[in-house]
Structures are given as C-alpha cells and as structure tokens.
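Much of our argument rests on the idea that a fold can be written as discrete symbols. Part of our work consisted of pairing the sequence of a single chain with a tokenised description of its backbone. No coordinates are needed to read the tokens, only the vocabulary itself. The record that follows shows the chain in one-letter code together with its fold in token form.
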Amino acid sequence: KGTLLDAAQAINANKSRSVLVIEENKVIGLISEGDLDRALLHGMDIHTSVTQFVRYGFTFLHQRNLVKALELFKKHGFSMIPVLSKKMELQDVITTIDILKHMKIDNPQT
C-alpha cells in the first residue's frame, strides 16, 4: 500500500491535484491535495498508509464525454475525472487541460 508521501509525489507528477487509488487493477477511490493537507495538519507522518484517507465515494464516467466532464468540473471544482469500465478498471482520465484543448478546437475564435 502507498503512503501519504507516495500520494503527494504522484499528485505533484500528474499536476491534477488528486491521484487515483488502484488495487488489483480496479480504481477504488482517490486522494486529493486537500486530503493530504488535512492528514498532515492532524499530525500524520508522511509514511502513514493512504488507506485511511482514500475517498471511496468519487465521481467517474463510464465513457469519455467532455461536455459531461465540463459540467462536473464547474459544479464540483474537479481537476480530473476518471473514465472507468463497468468493472471499475481505468480506461482514461479527463483533465481540465483536455477540456481547454477541446474548447480551443471547437471555438478557435476565442
């Protein structure tokens, strides 16, 4: 199992302010920068397992849909949304960068 430090390093590398937690090829939850901040503010060591900080109730899509993703980004302030199979296997990740690229292509005059 990963540690808070592992999660922080993964978040830093992916620049999406959160990281997916995967066990046995299935996405089981996510951890955000805010979750890490709260853990550290409560005195947790950086080598503490992420297990107690995983958010198991998380938003995802079953297919890549940038319009739906944009709605979710606006409503919840997400920076990424996983696209999962019915078996909860990771298929794709939609990020705010994907949305911005899509908007630029669809609206070249803006």
Notes: The longest helix spans residues 4-14. The two ends are 45 Å apart (CA to CA). The CA atoms of residues 59 and 81 lie 7 Å apart. The chain has a mean pLDDT of 90.
